[in-house]
Amino acid sequence: MAEKPLAADGLSPQQLLDLYRKMVIIRRADQEALNLQRQGELGLWGQFLGQEATQVGATVAMESTDWIVPSYREFGMAMCRGIDPGEMLGYFRGLTHGPWDPRRYRFLPFTISVATQVPHAVGFAMGCRLEGSREVVLCVFGDGATSEGDWHEAMNFAGVFQAPVVFLCQNNQWAISVPLRRQTAGSIAERAQGYGFAGVRIDGNDVLAVFSAVRSAADRARRGEGPSLIEAVTYRMGAHTSADDPTRYRLDSDLAPWSSRDPIETYAAWLRSQALLDEGQADSIDAEAEGMAEAMRGKLRRLPLPSPAASLFDRVYHDPPASFLKEREEFEATLEPVE
Amino acid sequence: MAERTFVLPDLGEGLTEAQLVRWRVEPGARVEVNAPLCEVETAKAVVVIPSPWAGTVRTVHGRPGESIPVGAALVTIAAADEAGAQPEGEAVLVGYGSRTPGPGEVRRRPRSSASPSASTEEGVRAAPFVRQLARELGVDLTAVAGSGPGGRITRADVEAAARPDDRPGPPPQAPEADHDGDQRISVVGIRKAIARQMVRSVSTIPQFTEFAVFDATALMAARDAARHKGRPITPLPYFILAAVEAVRRHPLLNSSWDESRDEIVVKKSVHVGIAVNTPNGLLVPVLRDADQLSLEAIAERSSRLIEGARGGSLSPRDMSGSTITVTNVGASGPIETGTPIVNPPECCVIGFGAIRLRPMVVDSQVMARQSAWISISVDHRIVDGGLATEFLTALVGELEAIRA
Questions:
Q1: Would B192 be classed as within a structural domain?
Q2: Catalytic annotation on B380?
Q3: Helix (H, G, I), strand (E, B) or coil at A37
Q4: At a CB cut-off of 8 Å and minimum separation 6, what does A339 contact?
Q5: How far is A243 from chain B (nearest CA, A)?
Q6: Mind listing the domains of chain A with CATH numbers?
Q7: Residues of A with CB under 8 A from a CB of B
Q8: Which of A112, A289, B287, B384 could serve as a FRET partner for A168 with CA atoms 20 to 30 Å apart?
């Protein structure tokens, strides 16, 4: 990593440092969310430990007017888009289905059902083009999603109609307990050829490689040159979710080669070698991450309980008919105030 | 400083209890937010519980090995002022009912038709499984004072109410009465782990067993000599040492079958699992690198492991990673031998019977000799009868060649 890689061209020292800062902050949020789950504050948490470079590099590579369509592990990407992490945790606490306004942040809701967001993203991208906008859609999924029928249909559709979409596979090598080799016989990236567009396989632990690949794929889509598939090879260092115990299906020795390729450690080493990061800066970023974690914890604990009537009735009709309003009144009459 | 009690949360989408593995703090300890408090094992995973507050630990509720229901007190902390002053209640997700709603918040009033017994249980706070248990045991929930958060009625409250007198309650895994009077015993913790491991053994490992009887006269003489020198020693260390020597000659017995690649992995180290009968069930602490240890070291470490297993003070790490296992078959009673079941993913388990006087033929004479049965069960994918016989022969040879 001593040579300055091509990918760094076009990024200022400040931007290069900010990639590091974002990775440190989202990792701290990930750790804190896991703690909060262990403390009974969250129903579930899906760690993204080890995948910070892919999440940060890809988000930063998109323009702020572009859209991101996530699965459920892209909490770090959402943070990079400026969504408040404490508010977002309300989702994992079971308080709300949509803790942020997707239009404001151009970041669609998390999708739990694997691969269902991929056709959505393609349709969304087609819509952008029909409206004549220059917006591009980044669609994010894991390696497991590529085994789903939805994924194939979306790829095919995107290829045929040249949708302005960037498909980003976070290949973290595990679909819950199923290793990649048990469900994917060939290369994920090379499948793009069969759909009639470009596919690349990149080091998902190299934030600059991710940035570069996603930026050029987005540029192509914006120029009307159609979709791309990027397979970012990384590793899920944690459990699938807080309800999973990976020691039952993988060994410490499986992790070892990836521990030495930690995306933050390797990038920090490169930044230092380029005199772009000193200890003072690293300390102040750590302190910022610590402050973020504390604020996130406080915000989560102060989130209000949802109103039963609002949860059920508010988002059904834009202009509710009278019968529906009557039903709501009847429901509200069954509620009692809590002293 | 406000005292706050942290209750065990549901750690994995619908769990009802967890087993305490070990404490990482003691009463009086100062803890920061997120400092590790304890390790618990649920049906899904062993997890470390981080402290939700900064402060001083006042009370730890529960001992290692104990089963703790979700929603029961885990640790009481005198929280530092800042945290103690925060308005929020305890963890909201513990059954979704432990948080006291704030002013202006609303709760659904149960309709009288919601359940057959709802009219008599108005205002009762109890989880559905507790209500079901109450129905089965004929306990009127309106007459039970709840000991859980916010007056919630726990399973233990219902069980206590169902008992006719003041006898101490049964442990959490105690049998529950079924409709027919049959007993239903919930399977958690060690029992569950044993069940899983044994099913894995017999459903994935084709295994067979061979038996031998050996002359233990030399072994007992050596042991007596050691005792005279003030070293109280049991036959077990001799068994382990002999097993290690036999493995040295036949390394294939110290191996495992890698199902993902259809390969045999011959282990470099010899980590001997020692099956120990404990009040909670069978545990297998692991004597690491037994091939590097002297008889004295084996004796000292194995007795410490056995004590630890019985006392419940071992960590999961102390009980994992064995490459071959030894077990005592019939240490008491008139039992001669048995067929041990291979401890996956190992290849071989060795069962040693009790040493006692038996008639043996020595120099064409029937004599009363100290002797014992040995049985080995092996993974037939790795070891055929020929090799098993060679290994067992070597083992008998080692045992009969013991000198003080």
A1: no
A2: yes
A3: helix
A4: none
A5: 4
A6: 6-306 (3.40.50.970), 307-339 (no CATH)
A7: 32, 35, 37-44, 93-94, 239, 242-245, 247, 297-298, 301-302, 304-305, 307-308, 334-338
A8: A289
Structural domain count of chain B: 3
pLDDT of chain B, 404 residues: tens digit per residue: 689 999 999 887 778 889 898 999 999 999 999 999 999 988 777 889 999 999 999 999 988 888 899 999 999 999 886 544 444 444 444 443 333 444 455 555 544 433 433 334 567 888 888 888 888 788 888 888 888 877 888 888 888 887 754 444 444 444 555 567 788 887 777 788 888 889 999 999 999 999 999 999 999 999 999 888 888 788 999 999 999 999 999 999 999 999 888 999 999 999 999 999 887 788 899 999 999 999 999 999 999 999 888 887 777 778 888 999 999 987 778 888 999 999 999 999 999 999 999 999 988 999 999 999 999 999 999 999 999 999 999 999 999 999 87
Chain A residues in contact with B88 by the CB 8 A cut-off are 301-302
What is the domain extent for residue B346?
A: 202-400
CATH code assigned at B11: 2.40.50.100
Same domain, B163 and B276: no
Q: Is the pTM of this model over 0.80?
A: no
Domain shared by B280 and B140, yes or no? no
- B177 and B216 share one domain: no
Integer angstrom CA distances of residue B33 from A47, B1, B46, B79, B92: 20, 15, 20, 10, 18
